[in-house]
């Protein structure tokens, strides 16, 4: 594969650059960037992108006279082809940042007005919400004794486990539970699996992971992710709220949860960025985000670039939220009170 030839050339050029105090070398930087994704990015097949053709189109646009700003623009154009919000380009020298396939997620406000925690606390929660896990979880009761859990992120694995146990105990007598992962930017898949175990009915295959190892042209075999119930797991009807700001590990949590027959996913299609990602620094001040695996649901389907489709699609509007109504939460409450079944598999 041409990647090896380009890699050797890029390393030679980068070695010369290092010898010259890391002088900016746009051609070497582009080749190193292309090779990095050629060797490590896991989702070319899922995305339908021919990376060799990308090189043929964009490499001629870079010369020894290319400026740093121009090279950043080329990197941005190339990564946009992947339509993957986990793919990022950061120029630490100039303070520039770009995110593939999701500029609004990278540069706009995370809260776009269609969700309000303050509204939930003031208009729906009865007796307030208890904050746990370093501020990443809060829980309480809604009308009819229905449990409500808001997860802001899947971080802090140590404190989150103790918090999840406390929440499960608090909901032991609840007829149904609403788990809200809207406006959740992700975190650790291990935390997502840990929390899903508090709602599992039995041990089930929930996802698989296929890793792209350095230098390998094919993915490794699928590694199964199983989730089973822990003592005190809740088997009542569970409703998981999602929206387009449900991202990464939060999406994987939704995928895991939909493997259980007593769980309904409700809201809007999620962001569509599930893979695990690592940062790599190259050249003089460039840092790239590289997704390294393909995650699939229990049926073998990847939702990358698509997003998790809810069982029941319900959208909030900014006007409704400003007027004091959370339509998604209210719909989940209505279903919870009637123990309505999932509408789709």
Task: Summarize the entry for a quick read.
The chain has 345 residues and is an alpha/beta fold. It has helices at 2-19, 26-40, 44-47, 51-58, 68-80, 103-107, 117-124, 157-170, 189-196, 249-257, 318-322, 327-338; strands at 88-91, 96-99, 126-132, 137-141, 147-151, 177-180, 204-211, 223-227, 238-242, 263-267, 277-282, 286-291, 293-297, 312-313.
Within CATH, the superfamily of the largest domain carries the name 2-enoyl-CoA Hydratase, Chain A, domain 1
User: What letter string, H or E per element, gives the SSE order?
Assistant: HHHHHEEHHEEEHEHEEEHEEEEEHH
The largest sheet has its strands arranged as 3-4-5-6-9-10-14
CA radius of gyration is 22 Å
Write a concise keyword list for the protein shown above.
single chain; 345 residues; alpha/beta; 2-enoyl-CoA Hydratase, Chain A, domain 1; 2 domains; seven-stranded mixed β-sheet; four-stranded antiparallel β-sheet
Structure commentary:
This protein is 34% helix and 21% strand. It has helices at residues 2-19, 26-40, 44-47, 51-58, 68-80, 103-107, 117-124, 157-170, 189-196, 249-257, 318-322, 327-338, and strands at residues 88-91, 96-99, 126-132, 137-141, 147-151, 177-180, 204-211, 223-227, 238-242, 263-267, 277-282, 286-291, 293-297, 312-313. Strand 5, helix 8 and strand 6 (177-180) form a beta-alpha-beta unit. It is built from twelve helices and 14 strands. It has two domains: 2-107, no CATH class; 117-272 and 307-338, 2-enoyl-CoA Hydratase, Chain A, domain 1. The longest helix is centred in the first third of the chain and has 18 residues, at 2-19. The chain has a seven-stranded mixed beta sheet, with helices on both faces. The protein has a four-stranded antiparallel beta sheet with strand order 2-1-12-11. Helix 1 (2-19) packs across helix 2 (26-40), helix 8 runs parallel beside helix 9 and helix 9 packs parallel to helix 10 (249-257). The chain is of the alpha/beta class and 345 residues long.
């Amino acid at each position: 594969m041409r990647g090896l030839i380009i890699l050797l050339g890029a390393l030679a050029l980068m070695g010369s650059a290092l010898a010259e105090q890391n002088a900016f070398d746009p051609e070497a930087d582009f080749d190193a960037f292309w090779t990095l994704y050629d060797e490590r990015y896991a989702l070319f097949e899922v995305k339908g992108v021919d990376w060799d053709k990308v090189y043929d189109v964009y490499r001629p646009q870079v010369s020894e006279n290319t400026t740093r700003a121009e090279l950043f623009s080329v990197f941005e154009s190339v990564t946009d082809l992947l339509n993957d919000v986990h793919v990022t380009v950061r120029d630490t020298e100039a303070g520039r940042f770009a995110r593939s396939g999701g500029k609004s997620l990278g540069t706009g406000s995370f809260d776009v007005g269609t969700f309000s925690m303050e509204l939930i606390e003031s208009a729906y929660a009865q007796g307030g919400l208890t904050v746990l896990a370093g501020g990443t979880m809060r829980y309480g009761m809604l009308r009819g004794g229905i449990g409500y859990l808001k997860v802001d992120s899947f971080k802090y694995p140590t404190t989150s486990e103790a918090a999840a146990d406390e929440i499960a105990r608090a909901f032991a007598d609840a007829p149904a539970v609403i788990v809200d992962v809207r406006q959740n930017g992700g975190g650790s898949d291990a935390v997502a699996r840990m929390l899903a175990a508090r709602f599992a009915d039995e041990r089930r295959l929930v996802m698989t992971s296929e890793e792209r190892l350095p230098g390998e042209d094919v993915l490794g075999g699928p590694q199964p992710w199983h989730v089973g119930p822990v003592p005190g797991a809740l088997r009542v009807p569970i409703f998981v709220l999602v929206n387009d700001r449900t991202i990464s590990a939060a999406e994987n949590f939704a995928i895991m949860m939909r493997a259980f027959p007593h769980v309904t996913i409700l809201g809007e299609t999620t962001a569509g960025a599930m893979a695990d990602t690592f940062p790599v620094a190259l050249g003089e001040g460039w840092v790239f985000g590289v997704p390294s695996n393909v995650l699939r649901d229990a049926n073998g389907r990847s939702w990358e670039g698509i997003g998790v489709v809810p069982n029941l699609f319900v959208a909030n509007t900014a006007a409704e939220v400003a007027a004091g109504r959370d339509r998604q939460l209210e719909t989940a409450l209505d279903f919870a009170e009637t123990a309505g079944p999932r509408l789709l598999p």
